[in-house]
Automatic annotation (TrEMBL):
Cofactor binding remark: Binds 1 [4Fe-4S] cluster. The cluster is coordinated with 3 cysteines and an exchangeable S-adenosyl-L-methionine.
Organism of derivation: Winogradskyella pacifica
HAMAP family, sorted: UPF0313
PANTHER family associated with the record: UPF0313 PROTEIN YGIQ (PTHR32331:SF0)
Protein family according to the UniProt entry: Belongs to the UPF0313 family.
Domain Radical SAM core: 305-585
The entry's keywords: 4Fe-4S, Iron, Iron-sulfur, Metal-binding, S-adenosyl-L-methionine
Cofactor list: [4Fe-4S] cluster
Name of the protein in its database record: Putative radical SAM protein YgiQ
Length: 657
């Protein structure tokens, strides 16, 4: 495939590449915080290919240098229609910093994982430069950073309440969520001759109106005004109350238009588009992608994020979980947009015929792997719904949670003659596989799906995310009671024994989440130890814009009840909660003993650190543990965590030799 491709098969990134295509000028120039990978998993590539499909001349400037004479911002000139700017597939602050605000030593979206190619707050930095260099050319911003910062939001890294990114970036328009539908309409209007500054009623866009600008009328929309940015700065409770409106309107099929004052200006956020149809989402995956990084990176090393998804297939968008700490529904929406089986199988065939494909698909998944084709049984009920989650506190009786289409899809994928094995690398909602929780589902369908995944689609380890053991914390997280994880583990163990699989169950957990106390973490450590787990996949809560948990972290109030919620804020509080994950480390034992004695929880102490030496065994498959790594799957297909473990094992073997 590489030998057949020409430089002109990628969107141009330089003047030389523009000239190769015979173009004298460009219609749209995209700027991105990521390296350019021409693949349907990377947003800038999708938008670029979509604009190209309209007949537009599109170029992309990936990771422009902001530390030199800024030639990357002027080298292609000004586009005829607009500049498009995105910080990349992740918020740049998440890319650049960990939960402790320490700079990361790797950037997954840069060749070789090198750091320093993406500035902090990239969308704002790029747009400010473009507005300075080309003041008369419109700049449209989008992607995850712009989408999640569209209103007044708390920025964890500066520890400040920030106004809409439209204000800080000076951009002319913001597209929130997945951008294909609004961009299609923006381009249609521009090509009709409508001036960019007159385009202000497109769904799923936001603009900042000047003091003297009239509010555009739209008889189809209801309006609602939330507390101004200045009020939010003075009153944390008002800031918290804003979020309920923002979240509910983001997830409604017939949403209201939102207004917010910022100084003398007015932020106007138009309602979102309806969920993409099957045909619309199929089209996004059917553009002529090369599915490869741009050749300019050939000598710089592999791009880690691309290596992870190179042989993976994305089957849907959206997530109806509505977890309090997660931004997926805020960006992709809670309603699921699923691809057709035909579209998915067509992409499987494309991947299977890549020259370096060895027969292993690393993931057949989405934001939550097992939400494919799920939707409301009666659409009119969904039309009126304002709930941020379809499965919390209980699974909605109107939600069709049949796993049969997904099981059939997996089986159809595995029939491809060049596919030896397809893995499910995305997170699976284990709670939806428990009949005691998913009461309206057919238990046999749930068991069939679980068995299909366990027997054919994992390599040694199945990863799920109960997140916590405390019911009050889980309730705030919008996650089900931990008792359903126990129920799932029972089913998992039963299938493991029945099929002789020797699989490990790997649970993910979060510390220092709002409402979590030290005692909750001690309970978590004791309960998971009692189940045979020595936890590996753990993380501290990181406040990111546009989540319930972040609003609580900053304001101290729950946006739906406006009641106070205790939250670990200081580094000491966070570190102490996190230490309970690692009760088995010698350096933590004395502190845990002292803390639990102080809390009067000798019962937990006797579980975690019994006085008598206990015969304790990790929860792992019987037989040779090497099965976890010596599966017939190639090294490149393993998850990032498994790769690190695998490399470590290889190094240790060499040392012993």
């Amino acid at each position: 495939m590489k030998n057949e491709l020409q430089l002109s098969d990628w969107l141009p990134t330089t003047n030389k590449e523009v000239k190769i295509r015979g173009w004298e000028a460009l219609d749209v120039i995209l700027f991105s915080g990521d390296a350019y990978v021409d693949h349907p998993t990377f947003g800038p590539a999708v938008i670029g290919r979509m604009l190209e499909s309209f007949g537009l001349r599109v170029a992309i400037v990936p990771q422009p240098n902001v530390n030199d004479n800024l030639q990357d911002f002027v080298k292609l000139g000004a586009p005829k229609l607009f500049f498009g700017v995105t910080g990349g597939c992740m918020d740049p602050m998440i890319s650049n910093y960990n939960a402790n605000k320490k700079r990361r030593d790797k950037d997954a979206y840069t060749p070789n994982g090198d750091i320093g190619f993406r500035p902090d707050y990239a969308t704002t930095v790029y747009t400010n430069i473009l507005k300075e260099k080309w003041p008369d050319t419109p700049v449209l911003i989008g992607g995850i950073e712009a989408s999640l910062r569209r209103v007044t939001h708390y920025d964890f890294w500066s520890d400040k309440l920030m106004p809409s990114i439209l204000e800080t970036s000076k951009a002319d328009m913001l597209v929130y969520g997945m951008g294909e539908q609004p961009l299609r309409e923006v381009v249609r209007l521009l090509e009709k001759g409508v001036p960019f500054n007159s385009i202000n009623t497109v769904l799923q866009t936001a603009v900042l109106l000047k003091e003297d600008e009239k509010i555009p009328k739209n008889s189809n929309w209801e309006d609602i005004e939330i507390s101004s940015h200045e009020v939010c700065l003075k009153d944390k409770k008002k800031y918290a109350s804003n979020f309920k409106v923002i979240e509910q309107e983001s997830n409604k099929l017939a949403a209201r238009r939102i207004f917010q004052k910022i100084g003398g200006k007015t932020l106007m956020i138009n309602p979102p588009y309806p969920t993409m149809t099957e045909a619309e989402i199929d089209a996004s995956f059917d553009y002529p992608y090369t599915r490869l990084p741009h050749p300019k990176y050939n000598k710089r090393g592999p791009i880690p994020a691309f290596e992870m998804i190179k042989f993976s297939i994305n089957i849907h968008r959206g997530c109806f979980g509505g977890c309090s700490f997660c931004t997926i529904s805020a960006h992709q929406g809670k309603f699921i947009a699923s691809r057709s089986q035909e579209s998915i199988l067509k992409e499987v065939d494309t991947v299977a015929n890549m020259p370096d494909f060895k027969g292993y698909l690393s993931d057949i998944g989405g934001p939550s792997a097992n939400m494919y084709q799920m939707k409301g049984k009666v659409q009119s009920i969904c039309d009126k719904c304002v709930a941020p989650s379809c499965i919390s506190p209980v699974i909605c009786s109107n939600l069709d949670t049949s796993h049969k289409p997904l099981t059939e899809l997996y089986q159809a994928v595995d029939k491809h003659p060049k596919v030896k094995k397809s893995f499910i690398g995305s997170g699976i909602r284990h709670d939806m596989l428990v009949p005691e929780f998913n009461k309206n589902a057919d238990p046999k369908e749930l068991d069939d799906y679980t068995e299909e995944v366990m027997t054919k689609h994992v390599s040694g380890r199945l990863k799920v995310a109960p997140e916590h053991t405390s019911d009050p914390v889980l309730k705030l997280m919008r996650k089900p009671s931990f008792k359903y994880f126990h129920k799932f583990k029972e089913r998992f163990d039963k299938i493991n024994i029945k099929k002789g699989l020797k699989l490990q169950l790997i649970p993910y957990f979060i510390s220092n989440h709002p409402a979590c106390e030290v005692e909750d973490m001690a309970n978590l450590a004791a309960e998971t130890k009692d189940m045979g787990f020595q936890l590996e996949q753990v993380q501290g809560f990181t406040p990111t814009p546009m989540t319930v948990a972040t609003v609580i972290y900053y304001s101290g109030y729950h946006p739906y009840t406006l009641k106070k919620v205790n939250t670990p804020i200081t580094k000491k509080e966070k570190d102490e909660q996190h230490r309970f994950f690692f009760w088995y480390k010698d350096e933590n034992k004395a502190w845990i003993k002292k803390t639990l004695n102080k809390l009067g929880r000798e019962d937990l102490l006797s579980v975690l650190l019994p006085e008598k030496t206990e015969k304790w065994r990790k929860n792992k498959p019987t037989g040779d543990a090497k099965n976890t790594f010596n599966d017939a799957v190639s090294f490149n297909q393993r998850t990032a965590e498994d790769k690190v473990r695998f490399k470590g094992k290889k190094r240790n073997k060499k040392k012993r030799r």
